[in-house]
Amino acid sequence: MDDLLKKIRDTENQASNIIKDANAEAEKIIEASRSSAAKKTQDLKKGIYKKYADLKASKIEEALKKREEETQAGINEYISSFGDLEKKKSIAIDYINKKIFDKA
């Protein structure tokens, strides 16, 4: 009878050890999956932030390019509003020379 009780206790101890080992292994697996999920979440966040930053950078580049084009168009329009400056300059020089020679 004692022998049978001893075998039952040994079996209970073995079962208890198996359950403890299984629980420990399950905790390791759960922790690993949490770490993996956290890493995947972090990687996804980084991807989203990078995509957003790239989009923002491209919008800034487009805005700068558009502003540069508008500025250049404004400058060109301003310059063209004067007409042909070289022609006006030669007319002014001819006028001044004529006035100087008329007085002389």
Layout: helices, strands, pairs:
Elements: H1 2-81, H2 85-103
Structure notes:
The chain is mainly alpha-helical and 104 residues long. It has one domain (2-103). It contains two helices and no strands. The chain has helices at 2-81, 85-103. The longest helix is centred in the middle third of the chain and has 80 residues, at 2-81. It is rod-shaped and about 150 Å long. The chain starts with a helix and ends with a helix.
The separation of the N and C termini measures 149 Å
Structural class computed from helices and strand pairing: mainly alpha
Helix content: over 70%
Percent strand equals: under 5%
Low-confidence stretches: none
Q: Radius of gyration in whole Å, from Cα?
A: 44 Å
Total beta strands? 0
**Could you report the average pLDDT, rounded to the nearest whole number?**
89
How many domain modules?
1
Largest sheet: none
Give helix and strand order, one letter per element, not per position.
HH
List keywords for this structure.
mainly alpha, 2 helices, rod-shaped
